[in-house]
Amino acid sequence: MEKKILHVLEGREKHITDTEVVRQSLPTMQFRFANPFIVVHHMPARYFAPGSPEDRLHPHPHRGFAPVTFMLQGQGYHRDNAGNAMTVTAGDVQWMFAGKGILHSEGPSEEFLKKGGNYELLQLWFNVPAAHKAEDPWYQYIKGTEMPAVAEKEGVHLTLVGGGYEGKTGPLKNFTPITAIWGNVEAGKEVTLTATRGYWTLLYVVDGKIEVNGTAVAGYHLVVFDKGDEQADIRITALENTRLLYLCAEPINEPVAAKDNFVMNTAEETEQAIQDYKNGLFGTLEQ
User: What pLDDT digit, counting tens, does each position of 120-149 carry?
Assistant: First the structure.
Protein backbone atom coordinates (compact mmCIF):
# COMPACT_ATOMS: atom_id res chain seq x y z
CA MET A 1 0.00 0.00 0.00
CA GLU A 2 1.28 3.46 -0.90
CA LYS A 3 1.11 6.16 1.75
CA LYS A 4 -1.27 9.01 0.93
CA ILE A 5 0.22 12.46 0.28
CA LEU A 6 -1.41 15.29 2.25
CA HIS A 7 0.63 18.24 0.97
CA VAL A 8 3.48 19.17 -1.34
CA LEU A 9 4.86 22.39 0.13
CA GLU A 10 7.16 24.75 -1.75
CA GLY A 11 10.10 26.18 0.12
CA ARG A 12 9.57 29.92 -0.21
CA GLU A 13 12.37 32.44 0.27
CA LYS A 14 12.61 33.87 3.79
CA HIS A 15 15.11 36.47 5.01
CA ILE A 16 16.47 35.42 8.38
CA THR A 17 18.92 38.35 8.40
CA ASP A 18 19.58 41.25 6.04
CA THR A 19 21.91 39.06 3.99
CA GLU A 20 20.90 35.44 4.75
CA VAL A 21 18.06 33.86 2.78
CA VAL A 22 16.64 30.36 3.30
CA ARG A 23 13.92 28.34 1.63
CA GLN A 24 11.23 27.64 4.25
CA SER A 25 8.88 24.74 3.51
CA LEU A 26 7.64 24.35 7.08
CA PRO A 27 5.69 26.05 8.54
CA THR A 28 3.58 27.52 5.73
CA MET A 29 0.14 29.10 5.50
CA GLN A 30 -1.05 25.84 3.96
CA PHE A 31 0.25 23.57 6.74
CA ARG A 32 1.76 24.52 10.07
CA PHE A 33 3.42 21.67 11.95
CA ALA A 34 3.93 17.91 11.86
CA ASN A 35 4.91 17.86 15.54
CA PRO A 36 7.78 17.10 16.35
CA PHE A 37 8.79 18.72 13.04
CA ILE A 38 8.36 22.48 13.49
CA VAL A 39 10.67 24.18 10.98
CA VAL A 40 12.38 23.09 7.75
CA HIS A 41 14.94 25.59 6.42
CA HIS A 42 17.13 24.98 3.39
CA MET A 43 20.02 27.39 2.96
CA PRO A 44 20.73 27.00 -0.78
CA ALA A 45 24.28 26.64 -2.06
CA ARG A 46 26.17 29.91 -1.78
CA TYR A 47 29.63 30.37 -3.21
CA PHE A 48 32.33 32.00 -1.09
CA ALA A 49 35.49 33.14 -2.88
CA PRO A 50 38.78 32.17 -1.20
CA GLY A 51 39.64 34.67 1.52
CA SER A 52 36.05 35.84 2.04
CA PRO A 53 35.41 37.79 5.26
CA GLU A 54 33.62 36.28 8.26
CA ASP A 55 29.88 35.79 7.65
CA ARG A 56 28.05 34.50 10.71
CA LEU A 57 24.66 34.55 12.37
CA HIS A 58 25.32 36.49 15.57
CA PRO A 59 24.56 34.93 18.97
CA HIS A 60 20.84 34.30 19.32
CA PRO A 61 18.68 32.40 21.82
CA HIS A 62 16.63 29.19 21.71
CA ARG A 63 14.47 27.37 24.23
CA GLY A 64 12.31 24.26 24.22
CA PHE A 65 13.47 22.31 21.16
CA ALA A 66 16.51 21.02 19.21
CA PRO A 67 17.85 22.77 16.10
CA VAL A 68 19.43 20.12 13.85
CA THR A 69 21.89 21.01 11.07
CA PHE A 70 22.42 18.68 8.11
CA MET A 71 25.58 19.95 6.37
CA LEU A 72 25.28 19.50 2.61
CA GLN A 73 28.31 21.41 1.32
CA GLY A 74 31.23 23.24 2.88
CA GLN A 75 31.99 23.53 6.57
CA GLY A 76 30.24 25.45 9.34
CA TYR A 77 31.37 26.52 12.79
CA HIS A 78 29.07 26.36 15.81
CA ARG A 79 29.58 27.96 19.24
CA ASP A 80 27.22 28.08 22.21
CA ASN A 81 27.29 29.25 25.80
CA ALA A 82 27.02 25.68 27.08
CA GLY A 83 30.68 25.35 26.13
CA ASN A 84 30.38 23.62 22.75
CA ALA A 85 32.51 24.71 19.78
CA MET A 86 32.55 22.49 16.71
CA THR A 87 33.16 22.59 12.97
CA VAL A 88 30.43 20.83 10.98
CA THR A 89 31.71 19.33 7.74
CA ALA A 90 29.70 18.32 4.65
CA GLY A 91 28.07 14.93 5.23
CA ASP A 92 27.90 15.43 9.01
CA VAL A 93 25.03 16.43 11.30
CA GLN A 94 24.81 18.39 14.55
CA TRP A 95 21.95 18.29 17.06
CA MET A 96 21.77 21.00 19.72
CA PHE A 97 19.17 20.63 22.45
CA ALA A 98 18.32 24.15 23.61
CA GLY A 99 16.44 22.95 26.68
CA LYS A 100 15.74 25.69 29.22
CA GLY A 101 17.79 28.18 27.23
CA ILE A 102 20.94 28.56 25.15
CA LEU A 103 22.77 31.17 23.07
CA HIS A 104 24.61 30.09 19.94
CA SER A 105 26.19 31.49 16.80
CA GLU A 106 26.82 29.74 13.49
CA GLY A 107 28.25 30.29 10.03
CA PRO A 108 31.04 29.25 7.66
CA SER A 109 34.22 28.19 9.44
CA GLU A 110 37.42 30.24 9.24
CA GLU A 111 39.15 27.33 7.49
CA PHE A 112 36.38 27.09 4.88
CA LEU A 113 36.45 30.84 4.17
CA LYS A 114 40.20 30.73 3.55
CA LYS A 115 39.78 28.01 0.91
CA GLY A 116 36.38 29.11 -0.43
CA GLY A 117 33.70 26.96 -2.03
CA ASN A 118 29.98 26.23 -1.85
CA TYR A 119 28.18 26.43 1.50
CA GLU A 120 24.81 24.68 1.84
CA LEU A 121 22.81 23.20 4.68
CA LEU A 122 19.44 22.11 5.97
CA GLN A 123 18.35 23.19 9.45
CA LEU A 124 15.33 21.61 11.08
CA TRP A 125 13.68 22.23 14.42
CA PHE A 126 12.83 19.02 16.30
CA ASN A 127 10.35 19.63 19.09
CA VAL A 128 10.59 17.84 22.44
CA PRO A 129 7.84 16.89 24.92
CA ALA A 130 6.93 19.45 27.57
CA ALA A 131 8.45 17.25 30.28
CA HIS A 132 11.95 17.93 28.85
CA LYS A 133 11.76 21.59 27.87
CA ALA A 134 13.23 22.85 31.17
CA GLU A 135 16.24 20.50 31.14
CA ASP A 136 19.86 21.54 30.66
CA PRO A 137 21.10 21.99 27.06
CA TRP A 138 23.31 19.38 25.42
CA TYR A 139 24.93 18.75 22.06
CA GLN A 140 25.64 15.91 19.65
CA TYR A 141 27.93 15.74 16.62
CA ILE A 142 27.35 12.88 14.18
CA LYS A 143 29.92 12.07 11.51
CA GLY A 144 28.76 10.77 8.15
CA THR A 145 31.10 7.80 8.57
CA GLU A 146 29.08 6.73 11.62
CA MET A 147 25.79 6.53 9.68
CA PRO A 148 24.94 3.04 8.38
CA ALA A 149 23.81 2.58 4.78
CA VAL A 150 20.15 1.61 4.24
CA ALA A 151 17.95 0.67 1.27
CA GLU A 152 21.13 -0.41 -0.47
CA LYS A 153 20.95 -1.00 -4.22
CA GLU A 154 22.68 0.26 -7.35
CA GLY A 155 22.32 4.03 -7.75
CA VAL A 156 20.82 4.53 -4.28
CA HIS A 157 23.10 6.11 -1.67
CA LEU A 158 21.20 6.62 1.60
CA THR A 159 22.41 6.57 5.19
CA LEU A 160 20.64 6.41 8.53
CA VAL A 161 21.22 9.48 10.71
CA GLY A 162 18.95 8.50 13.60
CA GLY A 163 16.29 6.03 14.64
CA GLY A 164 15.86 2.45 13.54
CA TYR A 165 15.51 1.08 10.02
CA GLU A 166 16.11 -2.37 8.50
CA GLY A 167 17.40 -3.58 11.85
CA LYS A 168 20.05 -0.84 11.95
CA THR A 169 20.26 2.09 14.36
CA GLY A 170 21.42 5.59 13.49
CA PRO A 171 23.78 7.37 15.92
CA LEU A 172 21.58 10.46 16.51
CA LYS A 173 19.78 10.32 19.87
CA ASN A 174 16.50 12.12 20.47
CA PHE A 175 13.82 12.45 23.16
CA THR A 176 11.14 10.92 20.93
CA PRO A 177 11.55 8.32 18.16
CA ILE A 178 12.68 9.99 14.91
CA THR A 179 14.02 8.09 11.93
CA ALA A 180 16.13 10.31 9.66
CA ILE A 181 17.58 9.08 6.35
CA TRP A 182 19.42 11.22 3.81
CA GLY A 183 21.50 10.90 0.67
CA ASN A 184 20.99 10.77 -3.08
CA VAL A 185 19.29 8.67 -5.73
CA GLU A 186 20.64 8.60 -9.26
CA ALA A 187 18.43 9.40 -12.25
CA GLY A 188 16.32 6.45 -13.33
CA LYS A 189 16.76 4.52 -10.07
CA GLU A 190 13.97 3.53 -7.68
CA VAL A 191 13.80 3.03 -3.94
CA THR A 192 10.98 2.23 -1.51
CA LEU A 193 11.01 3.44 2.10
CA THR A 194 8.54 2.13 4.67
CA ALA A 195 6.82 4.55 7.07
CA THR A 196 5.95 3.53 10.62
CA ARG A 197 2.28 3.13 11.47
CA GLY A 198 0.77 6.34 12.91
CA TYR A 199 3.94 8.41 12.58
CA TRP A 200 4.37 11.76 10.81
CA THR A 201 6.37 11.17 7.63
CA LEU A 202 8.09 13.88 5.57
CA LEU A 203 10.25 13.81 2.45
CA TYR A 204 12.27 16.89 1.52
CA VAL A 205 13.69 17.12 -2.01
CA VAL A 206 16.89 19.17 -1.85
CA ASP A 207 17.35 19.28 -5.62
CA GLY A 208 16.65 17.22 -8.72
CA LYS A 209 13.22 15.72 -9.35
CA ILE A 210 11.40 12.58 -8.28
CA GLU A 211 8.09 10.83 -8.63
CA VAL A 212 6.83 9.76 -5.22
CA ASN A 213 3.69 7.64 -4.95
CA GLY A 214 2.63 8.86 -8.39
CA THR A 215 3.27 12.57 -7.77
CA ALA A 216 6.12 14.53 -9.40
CA VAL A 217 8.09 16.62 -6.90
CA ALA A 218 10.99 18.97 -7.67
CA GLY A 219 13.74 20.47 -5.53
CA TYR A 220 12.88 22.90 -2.68
CA HIS A 221 9.64 20.99 -2.00
CA LEU A 222 8.52 19.13 1.13
CA VAL A 223 6.10 16.20 0.91
CA VAL A 224 3.88 15.65 3.97
CA PHE A 225 2.20 12.26 4.16
CA ASP A 226 -1.00 11.31 5.96
CA LYS A 227 0.16 9.74 9.22
CA GLY A 228 -2.99 7.61 9.39
CA ASP A 229 -2.80 4.24 11.10
CA GLU A 230 -1.56 2.04 8.29
CA GLN A 231 2.05 1.06 7.68
CA ALA A 232 2.63 2.01 4.08
CA ASP A 233 5.30 2.56 1.48
CA ILE A 234 6.97 5.65 0.07
CA ARG A 235 7.86 4.67 -3.52
CA ILE A 236 10.46 6.98 -5.06
CA THR A 237 11.65 7.12 -8.67
CA ALA A 238 14.40 9.61 -9.44
CA LEU A 239 13.62 11.49 -12.65
CA GLU A 240 16.92 13.34 -12.24
CA ASN A 241 19.87 12.93 -9.88
CA THR A 242 18.24 13.89 -6.59
CA ARG A 243 19.32 14.63 -3.02
CA LEU A 244 16.68 14.07 -0.36
CA LEU A 245 15.94 13.83 3.36
CA TYR A 246 13.36 11.36 4.73
CA LEU A 247 11.90 11.79 8.21
CA CYS A 248 9.49 9.60 10.16
CA ALA A 249 8.60 10.41 13.78
CA GLU A 250 6.23 9.54 16.56
CA PRO A 251 3.80 12.48 16.96
CA ILE A 252 4.04 14.67 20.04
CA ASN A 253 0.39 15.20 20.85
CA GLU A 254 0.78 18.45 22.76
CA PRO A 255 -0.05 22.09 21.94
CA VAL A 256 2.64 24.03 20.05
CA ALA A 257 3.35 27.70 20.72
CA ALA A 258 6.22 28.74 18.45
CA LYS A 259 7.36 32.35 18.31
CA ASP A 260 10.66 33.97 17.38
CA ASN A 261 13.36 31.44 18.38
CA PHE A 262 11.29 29.54 20.94
CA VAL A 263 9.05 26.47 20.81
CA MET A 264 6.90 26.05 23.89
CA ASN A 265 3.42 24.71 24.71
CA THR A 266 1.59 27.95 25.50
CA ALA A 267 1.74 31.58 24.38
CA GLU A 268 2.51 32.54 27.99
CA GLU A 269 5.61 30.32 27.96
CA THR A 270 6.93 31.82 24.74
CA GLU A 271 6.39 35.35 26.06
CA GLN A 272 8.22 34.36 29.24
CA ALA A 273 11.12 33.07 27.13
CA ILE A 274 11.28 36.38 25.25
CA GLN A 275 11.32 38.33 28.50
CA ASP A 276 13.93 36.03 30.05
CA TYR A 277 16.20 36.63 27.07
CA LYS A 278 15.67 40.39 27.22
CA ASN A 279 16.46 40.32 30.95
CA GLY A 280 19.78 38.53 30.37
CA LEU A 281 18.77 35.18 31.87
CA PHE A 282 20.17 33.28 28.87
CA GLY A 283 23.68 34.45 29.71
CA THR A 284 26.23 35.79 27.23
CA LEU A 285 28.23 34.56 24.27
CA GLU A 286 30.98 36.22 22.27
CA GLN A 287 30.64 36.19 18.48
Answer: 999 999 999 999 999 999 999 999 999 999
The mean pLDDT value for 165-177 works out to: 96
What pLDDT is attached to residue 287? 61
- Phi and psi dihedrals of 130, rounded to 5? -55, -35
User: Are 63 and 98 in contact, with CB atoms under 8 Å apart?
Assistant: yes
Percent pLDDT > 70 in the chain is 100
User: Per-residue pLDDT averaged across 190-216, rounded?
Assistant: 97
Mean pLDDT of 18-45: 94
3 state SS for the chain: CECCEEEEEECEEEECCCCCEEEEEECCCCCCCECCEEEEEEEEEEEECCCCCCCCEEEEEEECEEEEEEEEECEEEEEECCCCEEEEECCCEEEEECCCCEEEEEEECHHHHHHCEEEEEEEEEEECCHHHCCCCCEEEEECHHHCCEEEEECCEEEEEEEEEECCEEEEECCCCCEEEEEEEECCCCEEEEECCCCCEEEEEEEECEEEECCEEEECCEEEEECCCCCCCEEEEEECCCEEEEEEEECCCCCCCEEECCEEECCHHHHHHHHHHHHCCCCCCCCC
